[in-house]
Automatic annotation (TrEMBL):
Subcellular location: Cell membrane
Any single biological process term in GO: cell division
Keywords carried by this UniProt record: Cell cycle, Cell division, Cell membrane, Cell shape, Membrane, Transmembrane, Transmembrane helix
A Pfam family recorded for this sequence: CwsA
Keyword Flavoprotein annotated: no
Protein name: Cell wall synthesis protein CwsA
GO cellular component: plasma membrane
Protein's gene: cwsA
Main location: membrane
Keyword Transmembrane helix: yes
Family label: Belongs to the CwsA family.
Length: 143
């Protein structure tokens, strides 16, 4: 049994083989030339597609960049307005002081103190109660 493997030739190999062998030359030369032409056309079409995709991507990135710049400009304007109104807001806040921070501080200290008391109670060693049963073995004092 003999395995027959057919090796596919590239168009360039086919052209060189066609020029090399005169018996199959015209057929191989024709097939090689057509193959090189088709490969060139495919490569050119792929290159044109890549150029087109890159140009669309650049346009898309350009649009996204312009939108981001507009957003940043509006955010910056809003931040400037807030900073400009900051002295008035601070003045209003100083005018009406609240006792809430003091109340929150007192409540916080109370919660911490309660937690400390609970922790100390839970961490106490249990008191040992004397056993209520008499020992089963008589206890003799040591001399």
């Amino acid at each position: 049994m003999r395995a027959k493997t057919e090796i596919r030739l590239t168009p360039g190999q086919r052209l060189s083989r066609g020029l090399k062998y005169s018996a199959v030359g015209p057929v191989d030369v024709t097939r090689g030339a057509l193959g090189l032409g088709v490969d060139g056309a495919q490569h050119s079409a792929a290159w044109i597609g890549d150029v087109y995709r890159r140009s669309r991507l650049k346009d898309q990135l350009r649009q996204e960049l312009a939108a981001a710049q507009d957003t940043i400009a509006s955010e910056l304007a809003a931040a400037q307005e807030v900073v400009a109104n900051l002295p008035e807001a601070l003045q209003k806040a100083r005018g009406r002081r609240r006792r809430r921070p003091v109340l929150l501080a007192v409540l916080g200290v109370g919660v911490l103190a309660g937690g400390a008391v609970a922790f100390s109670i839970l961490r106490r060693p249990p008191t040992e109660e004397p056993p209520t049963l008499q020992p089963s073995v008589p206890v003799t004092p040591r001399p």
